[in-house]
Amino acid sequence: MKYSMAKVIVDVPSRETDRPFDYLIPDGMQGWIEVGSRVGVPFGRRTVQGFVLSLHEHTELDPRRMKPIQELLDLVPPLPADLVKLAEWMSGKYACSMISALQAMIPSALKGKAERYISLAEPGEEESIGEAEADGLFAAPLLLTGEEEEIVRYVQASGQVTLDHLSAHFPGRAGEIKGLIARGILAETQMIKDKVRKKTVKTVAAAVSGEAAEAALASFSAQAKRQKEVLEFLLEVGVPLSLQEVLSTLGVTAGTVHKLAEKGFAAITDVEVFRDPYKDRRFKGSAPLVRTPEQEVVYGNVTEVLDARQHGVFLLHGVTGSGKTEVYLQTIERCIELGRQAIVLVPEISLTPQMVERFKGRFGGKVAVMHSRLSTGERYDEWRKIREGRVQVAIGARSAVFAPFADLGLIVMDEEHETSYKQEETPKYHARDVAVFRARQHGAAVILGSATPSLESYHAARSQADDDFAPLLLEMKQRPLGSRLPGVHIVDMREELRDGNRSMFSRKLHEGIASRLERGEQTVLFLNRRGYSTFVMCRTCGYVAGCPECDISLTYHQKSNNLRCHYCGYAVPAPSVCPECGSEHIRYFGTGTQRVEGELAKLFPGIRVIRMDVDTTTEKGSHEKLLQAFREKKGDVLLGTQMVAKGLDFPDVTLVGVIAADTALNFPDFRSAEKTFQLLTQVAGRAGRHQLPGEVFIQTYMPDHYSIVHASRHDYLSFVREELNHRKTLHYPPYSKLILVTLSHEQLPLLLRMAENFTGDLRAKAQRLGWFGSLDRFAADALDILGPVASPIPRIKNRYRFQCMVKYRGTLDAVRLVRETAAATLEQLKDASLQISIDVDPQMLM
Ligand code: ADP
Ligand code: ZN
Ligand code: ZN
Predict the structure, then answer these.
(1) How far is the CA of 666 from the centre of ligand 2 (A)?
(2) In which residues is Zn(2+) 1 bound (predicted)?
(3) How far is the CA of 553 from the centre of ligand 3 (A)?
(4) I need a surface site. Which of 276, 387, 532, 838 has the fewest CB within 10 A?
């Protein structure tokens, strides 16, 4: 079939360009252009990157007025057609542009930008530039100044140079260069350039064999002894070797090998290689374990769907250590046997080295790891292994859900309740929803695993009310190794204070640590990061250093001794006297973990503490190193923030202490009880996972809070029941859906007016549709609008922020309503600096 026209989504981020544009397909590209191809197309006066959305035989437009596609950037389209469909769905669901959805799916290496190249213009018929020398060349009418001539000569000598290079070489001559282009003496072309290239190595092989080889060997002169040696070696080995290896083995120079190649006796070729970040690592192999009866049920359910190539979603609620990971491994094995591929999603890959090890150990080279700390090139290579079908399993955080497998059979999402599965930047997608959509496209299964499923997933499984998302609930309550869940004690810190203990450690936790030190067992101490930020305060006047652009306090960084804003990056050296009153009593309140570390050293002289927080884990691989050190028992205590709560599994950890459990409870977020419950359950699960029994102390000022009480009893169901009641009364998810709209602008009065306009407009439209103000009544379709109010962080990067919250239920298309209203508001103002951001199903209410 001959396609004459392609619809292309261009990489130009604006509301006006968020639609397909039509381009002609040149004859030479017939058969190469596909849906999902990445192309360079002329757009206005530029060349931009774009993605082919669809191909058409005919065009309604006049072909003479259409521009052709300029370049095809890859032989294999980076996006299979199903991902292009997925992007369309995302754009509707999350109110994001098509290009932002498509860009989220490809590695950053492929986010090419146009480079502008300058060369001599093609000779026209009459005024041929031809072979003539420069003096004869530029006779009238091409009168050039000396400076212009210099530029032209330079371009002529170089053949082709980038505009950046040329303007750097001739500083201050932009006018001349532009003039030469305008007069058609120099030509400008644009080409998309990728950020990284495929990596290649030079290999060498003998290019002769048999009698020809004999003759070749006989032909070397005495001086060419080294060349002869190389050829003998290549003939003996018989397979291509890397040039480097040949040089180092024989101790010859590259010149020798090249001479051999010039004579036609050897061939030097560039061979593409994959950068493998794990190439120097050995993984312990692991065979499948005999399934427990509980695992058998889960395995049976999932493989039934897999074998039948059906779509099915399972919510696997299994206590920590119940063998969920083993089930993932075995179902994936089945998936691979069926010739299909699997994706494993983990909340944050650098925090789950043990997970990666288990998958690598079981499946070896079949696994691609999409690690956030890989270099752009390494990530691109892992991605290519997936796209080219060289691996069957992809493991990674959120964005691995887009792994471009051809026949996806299974998607596993571990710790499905984690907030990191929601992307906070555009496109603001949730990997769980994307996983379910993709699985439906492929007729694939999804396992959502957690010891503390999100209320949304659990409610959906229980009520089976939603056609799109009604997972089947599967449970695992036993630990295969027979170990018991640890005993959890709540420690009332108010009582400690009443009894005169002003330390951050309760007496019980203190005793616990002391006895572990004596017995040579290990302790994990957990500190909730929230509420413990590091700020600078003057003890004399109470001054707190704040960011001049954003309404938040600056954070102290010990290493660089400066103060930094976490929102905009603003940084200043830490002052030694108070900028307000000149007092020297200005104090740096170190991170919570630093303070705890100091206190531990004081109370237990000689104690070995491994601290894991943002300050100690900035370097690549530092998490792994710290955890390895702890595993090798080079530390008595592992102290950290959220990072230590994730799936770690150490046999000698018998004590877990939570320093302050309730810091997150006071957060203005309707999920704070749920988050606290999940975190405590997760931390508690770190103790006594093996033979030694475990013990957990939760220190709190709110010992009666239901999330703390239920977490201490490992009682997920009671927690859920109580929490769902609250949510129902207040119409929060899962009993409603939310859309958070944030408007921002530099001028406060203008912003206020626009926020009022927007909300008023939205209300009026919803009222006309009969949706508005009905959440408290029993209507199936109902919607309420809260706000506008100042955002919890009222100013970021000198922009004021107001927000409004849409709460709704039923089948009404609120996303569309919000999107259209936002577009109308922007249209009305015609001020590009007003921004309206739409967050569908927000996880963070900031
Ligand atoms: P989870 O992912 O639910 O925390 P894991 O899969 O890590 O649980 O299992 C916890 C421990 O139990 C691991 O040490 C694992 O090797 C072991 N285990 C899991 N399944 C079995 C089984 N069927 N037989 C024996 N040991 C098992
Ligand atoms: Zn002061
Ligand atoms: Zn700032």
Answers:
(1) 28
(2) 538, 541, 578, 581
(3) 9
(4) 276
Neighbouring CB atoms inside 10 A of 246's CB total 24
The answer to whether residues 466 and 499 belong to one domain is: no
Q: In this predicted model, what pLDDT tens digit does every residue of 254-268 receive, in sequence order?
A: 888 888 888 888 888
Domain range for 762 is: 737-840
Q: Is 323 in the pocket of ligand 1 (CB under 6 A)?
A: yes
CA of 421 to the centre of ligand 1 (A): 24
Domain boundary pick from 728, 759, 780: 728
By most ligand atoms within 8 Å of CB, the mutation choice from 481, 653, 714, 716 for ligand 1 is: 481
CATH of the domain at 107: 3.40.1440.60
Which ligand sits nearest to residue 477's alpha carbon?
A: 1
The DSSP result for 289-354, as a single string, is PPPPHHHHHHHHHHHHHHHTT--EEEEEEE-TTSSHHHHHHHHHHHHHHTT-EEEEE-S-GGG-HH
Closest residue to atom 23 of ligand 1, CA basis? 291
Residue 354 binned pLDDT confidence (cut-offs 50, 70, 90): confident
Spacing, Cα 548 to ligand 3 middle (Å): 7
* CATH assignment at residue 751: 3.30.70.360
Identity at 832, one-letter amino acid code:
A
Last residue of a domain, which of 83, 114, 145? 114
Residue 273: count other Cβ atoms within 10 Å of its Cβ.
Answer: 13
Task: Indicate the DSSP class of residue 401.
Answer: G
550 is known to lie in a ligand binding site: yes
Q: Are residues 503 and 462 in the same domain?
A: no
| Residue among 320, 326, 477 whose CB has most ligand 1 atoms within 8 A, to mutate | 326
Contact call for residues 428 and 419 (beta carbons, < 8 A): no
Separation CA 434–CA 437 (nearest Å): 5
Per-residue pLDDT, 138: 46
- Per residue in 689-740, pLDDT (tens digit) is 666 678 899 998 888 999 999 999 989 999 999 999 999 988 889 999 999 9
578 is annotated as contributing to ligand binding: yes
- Report whether 538 belongs to an annotated binding site: yes
pLDDT tens-digit readout, 380-398? 889 989 998 999 999 999 9
> What is the CA(806)–ligand 3 centre distance, in A?
28
What is the rounded average pLDDT for all residues in the chain?
86
Ligand nearest, relative to CA of residue 537 = 2
Say if residue 470 is in the same domain as residue 519. no
Residue 581 annotated as binding?
yes
Q: Is residue 248 part of a domain?
A: no
Give the burial string for 68-101 (b: 16+ CB within 10 Å, else e).
bbbebbeeebbbbebbbbbbeebbebbbbbbbbb
Q: Which residues is 200 bridged to in the sheet? A: 272
* Closest ligand (CA of 651): 1
Based on the domain organization, do 399 and 523 belong to the same domain?
Answer: no
Domain match, 64 and 164 both: no
Q: Which CATH number characterizes residue 450's domain?
A: 3.40.50.300
Paired with 316 in beta bridges are 449, 474
The Å distance, Cα 556 to ligand 2 centre, comes to: 17
Does residue 235 form part of some domain? no
| Number of domains within the chain | 5
Nearest ligand to the C-alpha atom of residue 346:
1
Hey, whose CA ends up nearest to atom 20 of ligand 1? 323
> What would the mean pLDDT of 184-202 be, rounded to a whole number?
75
Same domain, 357 and 472: yes
Q: How far is the CA of 67 from the centre of ligand 1 (A)?
A: 60
Structure tokens belonging to residue 232? 């003998």
Task: Verify that 696 and 803 share a domain, yes or no.
Answer: no
Give a yes or no: residue 273 inside a domain: no
β-bridge mates for residue 396, sequence order: 345, 370
Ligand 1 atom showing the smallest separation from residue 685 Cα: 4
Rounded to two decimals, what is the model's pTM?
0.81
Q: State the number of CA atoms in the 13 A half-sphere of 651 facing the CB.
A: 4
Same domain, 445 and 426: yes
